[in-house]
Amino acid sequence: MAFRGSSDKLYTRNNGKFLGLVELLGKFDPIMEEHLKLATTGGISDHYCGKDIQNELIHLMGEKVTSEIISRAKNAKYYSIIADCTPDISHDEQLSLTIRFADLTDANVAVKEHFIEFIPATSSTGAGLNEVILSILKKHGLEIANCRGQGYDNGANMKGKNIGVQKRILDPLAFYVPCGCHSYNLVLCDAAKSSVNSVTLFGILQRIFTLFSASVNRWKILTDHVELYSVKKLSDTRWEAKINSVKSVRYQICEIHDALVTLANVTEKTDHTTSHEASTLAEQLKDFGFILSLVVWYEILFQINVVSKSLQSQDMDLGKSAEMLENCCNFFEEYRKTGFKKAYCTASDLAKELQVNPEFKPAKRLRRIKRQAGEIATDEPIESLEKKFEVEFFNKLLDVALMSIKERFQQLKDYSDTWSFLHDIKKIPEKKELAVLCGNLQQKLTVGSNSDIDGDGLCDELISLKHFLPGLLTSEEPTNENIVQNISAKEHLESDGEEEVQETP
Question: What is the number of alpha carbons within 13 Å of residue 198 lying toward its C-beta?
Answer without folding.
Answer: 24
